[in-house]
Amino acid sequence: MTTGGGTPDVSAESWVIGTDGLAALVDVLLTRGFTVVGPTVRDGAIVLDELVSAGQLPYGWGVELEAGSYRLRERADRAAFANAAGPQSWKSYLHPARVRQWRADRATGRPTFETDEPAPHRFAFLGVRPCDLRAIAVQDRVMAGGRHRDPVYEGRRTGAFLIAVECTEPGGTCFCVSMGTGPAAGPGHDLVLTEVADAGDHRFWIRSGSPEGAEILAELPLRPADPGTVDAARQGVSTAADRMGRSMPEVDLHRLMAGTLDAPRWNEVAERCLTCGNCTMVCPTCFCTTTQDVTDLTGDHAERWRVWDSCFDLDHSYLHGGPVRPSAPSRYRQWLTHKLGTWWDQFGSSGCVGCGRCIVWCPVAIDITEEAAALHDWAGRQDADDGDGRP
Prior knowledge:
Elements (H helix, E strand, L loop, with lengths): L13 E5 H13 L3 E8 L2 E6 L10 E6 L2 E6 L16 H4 L3 E8 L6 E4 L7 E6 L1 H15 L6 H7 L3 E5 L10 H4 L11 E7 L4 E7 L2 H7 L5 E2 L2 H15 L11 H7 L5 H6 L7 H5 L6 E7 L5 E8 L9 E2 L2 E2 L4 H20 L9 H4 L7 H21 L3
Parallel strand pairs: 2-8, 8-9, 9-10
Antiparallel strand pairs: 1-11, 1-12, 2-3, 4-5, 6-7, 6-14, 10-11, 13-14, 15-16
């Protein structure tokens, strides 16, 4: 794993590359044996996939995001990273949805067992948004920071090379400013890019955040960072901060969640919630799993798989006698209060990074910021009632 600082001053070592430099970056990473993963256009969305060249990046494509709505749109420029978070996050590669744990066979008459060891991976993630950079740090704490470390996650995370891209084009559902996770990149990257696609030329302000990042930077066609590019890059990030599509109420969300467990809003939102679990699947920090045992038709071969699970699944809280949270309101409340509240108690941070994916990919357009605001309004009315003794 690597760690690094935030955006350095222009007086620090920083450079500019063009689109040829971005192509060279992918080539250098491939030459060094990395599996390069980055955004590309497929099936009407900007998704993450393995890249063999920078030409697969989504040049000239943006997105329009709203609650329950995602649309690609063509841009007037050739920007590669002027688009908000897509349906996938880097969790798909670091904490895969399906992992086989062991297999057993008795076809020869004597049972045999084989444990699956985590396969070695050396990923380079190109285009990590600041919100997703924070999400990886959150997953590091959950999956590799405690006494019970996940070997699959550690095997994929160790040695991963992170190339962050600062956000200059927030989506209609983004609220990273509210969560303190963007649009400027925080710590944890090896390289960080800020894209400038103005009338001058298409270029990227690039800085290193680790010794390995500096090594790779030295192999690229660079020119010193000029004040015009740096100013334009910083202005793009600053403007993005003022153009967030959503915001959380400016309150202690941990305390708000703890104080609104009996709010009628939980029943109201559950009238719409399908408990489908889409929000947990696209969330870059949700980590719950379950196990599935499968066998072939002969019964001679069996496997155990670890798969993603969701707290919206009725069986997620199943104990002897039945589920602890049998109702939709109780399951939605569990998700939201954990994400914004009790995550602090477990891991010392929020479980929400403000990416807005749960809003976009909810089929009934439930908005986490709207729900938090409604709970805040209800808590305020309760405080007012308690203050004067009258409803």
